[in-house]
């Protein structure tokens, strides 16, 4: 008998029952909730006179709509305010723990879960948000669901699902200075495409992953969804255990020891077989920049904008042409000659302390270029913000001319006041460069935190090492 | 959920791959706490020439006359045709609610993003997958001879063009039944209450820390 992959183990552990046609009922250990995708689920529950099966297995936080400036005045946009207040009310009514907007623990749901130790290895975790994949960095099976499924999990603590296929992406080698996990995942998406992982759970493995910090692993898993996979995974090791120690929801004492033994089993067996496998040598990887309106449209900072005439097929030729038109870029333009208007550092991709440190390192002692209209730094959570302030990172940023904000999703999807105006170009550490994602008519280039800081300083894309 | 009833409709071709959920329903409309009322804002940024805001009366907004949904007879269409990876991006079920509110009950594409695909079934929308050669043929059909209709027959798992070309599609038996019967899948799951309770009891013994109380 061949061994099991990490995904196989997680699946088997959580199968409540399975029908002949392969449809299974899967038990969910933790559900995370936020304001945008939960209101209708609570509404459905109420309509059917149902209650949450295990309210203590849910954790809620408002993140998408919250303002990142002074919060004492509350939310001024009445529609956004209603949505956040609806979450508050629902959590109160159904007895679910919520970190409200003014709670110091408030932040982006995918930053908060691991930070609080609510995310643990061996769990199944869902959230009405596609970037739930992030939590897989701790050896949990975590995936995004729609609002109807949020309601389903509230009511039954289960989901109806079919097993996905197994993919492993081996990232080997030592990353060059100034090249980070964001560059790795962008390169992976460039390699396999935005639907390359559809139907798979992707496990990230190899020396570049075992050497990576927990934050870096979260960045990798975060963007598994941009590669088409609902789940990203990294096997548990000592670094995972160390990360989990002493977090508010991490088990204590004897429970911790038992949990630890269990957690350490959350790895793929050496003889496990994957349906699909890719290898990427990262020692020669260069900082990545997207040029189009899909995360797979990505090149190195020292490359040029590609020519649709060179596209591999006709559909892609059309897509590239439309993307260049939307992005207002001509084929052959050097990436490092592209000037940007705004810079956004934050999001569940890169809003953690390590990301802010990397950006601050580039910004330190320098000034934001005069052509930059706005450079935002938005910590992923209140605790990240406090930590950064303790380290003096906020001062480095503000002295360089960046704005230091309150935690939330912010300009990642521009549901609050932080957004691009039509035609503006942004270097962003978020995960999506879709048309209008950061504001109607806005143009997004996805980059790492160091690259975003470098773009702010140089006023255009630049290799952070060559500033 | 409303039962899926077989129907015939003009096919709306959107000749793109990777149509993302941000395009299907832009983020500003996600602030709604309702489950309906999204139809006017389906493909908002492609459909209108101005920037849409929630709660706005869309009847006076300037239309992008180039966009297929604004052209006759497509604007009456209830079948959408697209290429690979339709519905990629965010998990927002609002994307399916917008399609459904507009009247689209069937999407035909080369492939779908997983979350979007699941969301369709929860709302009585049928996502049909066809091989890329068939997708090419359908786009060519529209390009060469103009708008055409298809009859969507879920019982038989066929989509038939008005010129008689038959396309068979695959679908899970369980999902098919849910669509045809308009079943509430929460109620279906609750029928397995015994299994769920037994599972919980065993897990509470074996891995008690997983039953952490997040309200502490
Ligand atoms: S930061 Fe962006 S990607 Fe992450 S949860 Fe918020 S909106 Fe979604």
Descriptive account of the structure:
- The complex is a heterodimer of chains A (467) and B (216).
- Chain A has 16 helices and 19 strands.
- Chain A is α/β, with parallel strands linked by helices.
- A five-stranded parallel sheet of chain A has the order 5-4-3-6-7, with helices on both faces. In chain A, strands 17-16-15-18-19 form a five-stranded parallel sheet. A four-stranded parallel sheet of chain A has the order 11-10-9-12.
- In chain A, strand 1 and strand 2 form a beta hairpin.
- Chain A is globular and about 55 Å long.
- In chain B, strand 5 and strand 6 (158-161) form a beta hairpin.
- Chain B has a single domain (7-183), classed as Alpha-Beta Barrel (Aconitase, domain 4), CATH 3.20.19.10.
- Chain B is 31% helix and 14% strand.
- Chain B is built from eight helices and seven strands.
- Chain B is globular, with a radius of gyration of 20 Å.
- Chains A and B meet through strand 2, helix 2, helix 3, helix 5 and strand 8 of A and helix 4, helix 7 and helix 8 of B.
- The complex binds iron/sulfur cluster.
- Residues 63-64, 108, 110, 129, 131, 347-348, 409, 412-413, 430-431 of chain A line the site of iron/sulfur cluster.
Keywords:
heterodimer; A: 467 residues; alpha/beta; five-stranded parallel sheet; 16 helices; 33% helix; B: alpha/beta; Aconitase, domain 4; binds iron/sulfur cluster
* Overall structural domain count of chain B: 1
**Structure annotation, total helices of chain A:** 16
Proportion of residues in β-strands of chain A: 15-25%
User: What is the string of SSEs of chain B from the N terminus onward?
Assistant: EHHEHEHEHEEEHHH
The low-pLDDT segments of chain B are none
Total number of beta strands of chain B: 7
Percentage of β-strand residues of chain B: 5-15%
* Strand neighbour order, sheet with most strands of chain B: 4-3-2-1-5-6-7
Largest sheet of chain A: 5 strands, parallel
Here the CATH topology of chain B equals Aconitase, domain 4
Query: Largest sheet of chain B, described in full?
Result: 7 strands, mixed
Which structural class fits the helix and strand makeup of chain A? alpha/beta
Rounded to an integer in angstroms, the radius of gyration calculated over CA atoms of chain A is: 21 Å
**Average pLDDT for all residues of chain B:** 95
Helix residue percentage of chain A: 25-40%
Cα Rg of chain B: 20 Å
